[in-house]
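Weekly sync, protein design subgroup
Attendees: M.S., D.O., the rotation student, P.L. (late)

Item 1: inverse folding check
M.S. brought a backbone from last month's batch and wanted to see whether the design step gives back something sensible before we order anything. D.O. pointed out we never logged the input encoding, so this time it goes straight into the notes. Structure tokens as presented (147 positions):
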């Protein structure tokens, strides 16, 4: 006879919140005080539980992708500069500008357009019907070296 489950419908909301925060199945199991196999079983037995986890992950991934895109392309946002001038607080509205971030752009392109932007590219140096010619060897002598 199978043991009764500790699963509750209310777990769906909590699982979604935890997934948004990047929780792994192991971390979900720790939170719900069960085994990781139990989490996997709940995903199969309770479709809404599985959907909650997927939804949380999708929301988090979309938000991160949006932030990465903004870093890669540059962005701006309104801000307030607060200073104390002659003993009085002075607030000045301003717009902060952030230039594009090269590393973020490279990361984005390597993941979105792997064939064009990966570090190792396969290049065919031969054309159909042609043979490779010899490659000249160039030797550079160090003028400071003893002969």
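Designed sequence read out in the meeting:
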């Amino acid at each position: 006879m199978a043991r009764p489950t500790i699963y509750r419908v209310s777990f769906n909301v909590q699982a979604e919140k935890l997934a948004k925060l990047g929780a792994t199945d192991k971390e979900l199991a720790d939170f719900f005080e069960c085994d990781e196999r139990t989490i996997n079983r709940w995903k199969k037995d309770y479709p809404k539980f599985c959907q909650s986890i997927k939804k949380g992950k999708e929301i988090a991934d979309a938000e991160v992708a949006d932030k990465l895109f903004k870093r890669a392309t540059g962005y701006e946002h309104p801000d307030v500069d607060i200073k104390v001038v002659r003993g009085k607080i002075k607030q000045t509205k301003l717009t902060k500008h952030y230039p594009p971030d090269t590393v973020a752009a490279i990361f984005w392109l390597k993941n979105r357009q792997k064939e064009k932007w990966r570090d190792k590219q396969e290049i065919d140096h031969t054309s159909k019907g042609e043979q490779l010619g010899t490659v000249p060897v160039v030797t550079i002598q160090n003028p400071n070296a003893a002969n």
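Discussion: The chain has six helices and two strands. The longest strand covers residues 75-85.
Action: P.L. to compare against the previous round before Friday.
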